[in-house]
Amino acid sequence: MKEVLKVVDLKKSYGKNEVLKGVSFSINENEIKVIIGPSGGGKSTLLYCINFLTKPNSGKIFLDGVELTSPNVDLPKMREKIGFVFQHFNLFMHLDAYNNVLMGLVRVKKMKLNEAKEIAENSLNLVGIDKKLWNLYPAQLSGGQQQRVAIARAIAMDPRIILFDEPTSALDVELIGEVLKAIKNLALKGMTMLLVTHEIEFAKDIANEIMFLDNGVIIDKGTPEEMILNPKNERIKKFLGIITKEKENV
Prior knowledge:
By secondary structure, this protein is of the alpha/beta class.
């Protein structure tokens, strides 16, 4: 299988605080890898470094064999190939749902308007955003609807990989399912994804591989069966026990 993303010994510090202490992994085409672990373990920082929203201190990142960490790379052009879905949606509040998706196609990809409109409409339909919602502004949409518009915006750009940073963490419980359904639809279509989430059952259902990131390092990785149903590592067992109790108390 073709390798899409490769991360080699990635490190990131803020002052004396080492957030990432040497993270390495790779993702092949059509694969879905999920990162789990406690808050503060470095999960979001890792995604931000991969997309250069935060610059890593050291290590290498490759996308389709091109080193993004090289000083000679056309980084803005390469970043167009990496979709990013944030915890808090990050939609343009002055644009309606339709134009949130359309703008990147026209402004960044320089597409002709008719072609861009077709892609925007297909993307909104794919994540279940009904046409009657297209002209509404983010403030008029539910959290789940906003996040699905954000996903539509990401997939419209035809990225090689989409990074999801806890895409359901800002949602009310009853809205989580519709976002997870949209992500699962992308999985069924073969989208390559790297997903940070606390939705353990969803991770078990969707992932090819699960990685456990704690204190800046991947302490274990394996299939969902190995990591969720039969974890060997005591730290992971403890974490899963805490998550299970939190879910039971919701």
